[in-house]
Amino acid sequence: MASTCITLTITPVHFPPASCTFEQLATQGAELNDTQVVLHGYIGTRRDASKSLTFAELHDMTLGSTVQLVSTPTKGVDGSDSPHSTLRELQEHSPVAINGTIKARKAPSGASREIRAGLITSVEVKVDNITPLNAFPSDIIMSKDTVFPPEQRHLQIRNDPAVRNALAFRSKAARIVRNELCEKHNFTEIETPLLFKSTPEGAREFLVPTRAPGLAYALPQSPQQYKQILMASGIPRYMQIAKCFRDEDLRADRQPEFTQVDLEMSFASAEDVMRTVEAVVKRLWSELLGATDLPEAFPRMSYEEAMSRYGSDKPDLRLGSEIQRIEYMIPVDLVKKIGPLNDPIVEVMKLSIAEDANETRKFVNIFMDSPEAQPFIQNPHGQPGIFIFDTRKPLQGLQVFGFEAAEALEDMLSLEDGDLVIIQARPRAEFSGGSTPIGNLRLALHKAAVKHNFIQPPQGFAFTWINDFPLFSPSNDAEPGQGGAAGLAATHHPFTSPKTAEDVDLLLTDPLSVRADHYDLVVNGVELGGGSRRIHSAEMQELIMREVLQMSDARLKDFAHLLEVLRAGCPPHAGLALGFDRLVAVMMGKESVRDVIAFPKSGRGEDMLVKSPTRMTEGQLETYHLRLKE
Ligand code: ASP
């Protein structure tokens, strides 16, 4: 009871509005000498120099700056108790309003330097009155180095300027995106419903049960269908910074709810969308990172080329180490010795780890002993062959492929001392999926070599568009998705158009070789986003769903609204979505999207602060006509 009373007495209902910002203090400095101001902020460290002289910091969160307060015993402006004694009783981190008088100090440096350094050195503030606005409790210990758990996300944010910076950066990025699209390219920002409908597009959805027995909404995995409906509704260009929901495994730094910069353009081709997105990205990079040297147009690479040269559909082009096919160089009987595969494709890549073969050997040992090596050692198609080039024993090891092949490889790869040569077999088949084992090994080896200081981390930003994806990928449809009985699923989503008339011709005869008018934007090995030109004819959309994917009538019915909308003279249209969390994380060089989200979910999809999800009560189950399985 006692503590309730204290809290109530120190928590004022009214408090004076701030009359001056910390930015003004820092930039106008001594010009403000003797001005009376009201400042809002948090009390920082206090130093009682003597009984009658106290210094305390007042922190501002907007700029992360601090001004020094000076206090001597006086009566408060309203005749209240001495603010001096109030200040001396205040717990650090408590929010306050300070009535004070600005006093100039000898300014040692320029104003902008003062803001960056945090402490404003040109002025201090003599305390005339102090209004405590709440008390920071003594049972919470918060110092610069305190690490708070996710349950105390509010204190993580409050105590870590890096998190607040990330949120501020994100906010600026969102403003730039809106400005570029809406002001410069005539997009209209339109909100689309979050209470959508279950229409299997690819990912598992979150359902929202309603009070009507058996009826549920689904949260959108993206605003894909609504934005296409907007195109059919005569909206020329749509954009939205949209919340999306996917109930997927949360591996690989995914969140069940995330944000997309979503856009769609009517009477537009893939080319128009790529140009528009390049403008947005270049503006973001130039305004927020000062990078004005991005290429006029980003390079493009087909899916096939990305998979064969880098073993990934989102290649990190900064790493070099291109993959090359070599099975034709190796005598047939020796190829068979590479692993269990009969007629494999054999690929090679080189990584320059060190100039001394012994150093490279050390690195290989570290890597092979690490858990990261396990998936490669256990590859059912055979372990990678790992060779270290050493001029003292040239071609040693590689000679298992025969002297001629070893020599040809040395030439082909221009091998130098300490180079690491990796050889890996894979089945002779079309590429499918996002990566090959040698592509994954390329990334894992580079990452480990950086981690253990054998090579420098790659620098800069290397953008590329990946296009010419296959329209369909093999699928067993065990996963929730749009696939039907044909054992196929749309690689992007089922609304993506075949690329050319020749691709349309192959739809019924050889669907796996149909190319999609689909493009992904990749930077430094990260997929920033993807999009496509859409099918805008109802007949074509129905043909793909019914005949190619062989969706059941029930599944097709889920998309009846879309077919009806396309039928109403829908113009050609194309669009794309950028993963906004990932984009901000990449721009800021953050490892995880969690670092740029105010309230991220844990690896188990929980919000540790509010403690969600929660168990449904009997009453709620009743309301929604639900029963838990025994
Ligand atoms: N809706 C798609 C996605 O979320 C993006 C697009 O095709 O515009 O990946």
Can you describe what's shown?
With 630 residues, the protein is of the alpha+beta class. Helix content is 30%, strand content 22%. The protein is built from 20 helices and 21 strands. The strands form 5 sheets. An 8-stranded mixed β-sheet has the order 6-9-10-21-20-19-16-11, sandwiched between helices. The chain has a 5-stranded mixed β-barrel with strand order 1-2-3-5-4. A 4-stranded antiparallel β-sheet has the order 12-13-15-14. A hairpin with a 2-residue loop joins strand 19 and strand 20. Helix 6 crosses helix 19. The N terminus is likely disordered. The structure holds aspartic acid.
Give the oligomeric state: single chain
- SSE-based structural type: alpha+beta
**Residues in helices, as a percent range:** 25-40%
The residue-averaged pLDDT reads 91
Q: Would you count the extended β strands for me? A: 21
Strand content: 15-25%
Largest sheet: 8 strands, mixed
How would you write the strand order of the largest sheet? Answer: 6-9-10-21-20-19-16-11
List low-pLDDT spans.
Answer: 1-6
Computed CA radius of gyration, to the nearest angstrom: 31 Å
Ligands in the model, by name, code or SMILES, are: aspartic acid
How many alpha or pi helices?
Answer: 20
Span between termini: 44 Å
- Name the overall outline: globular
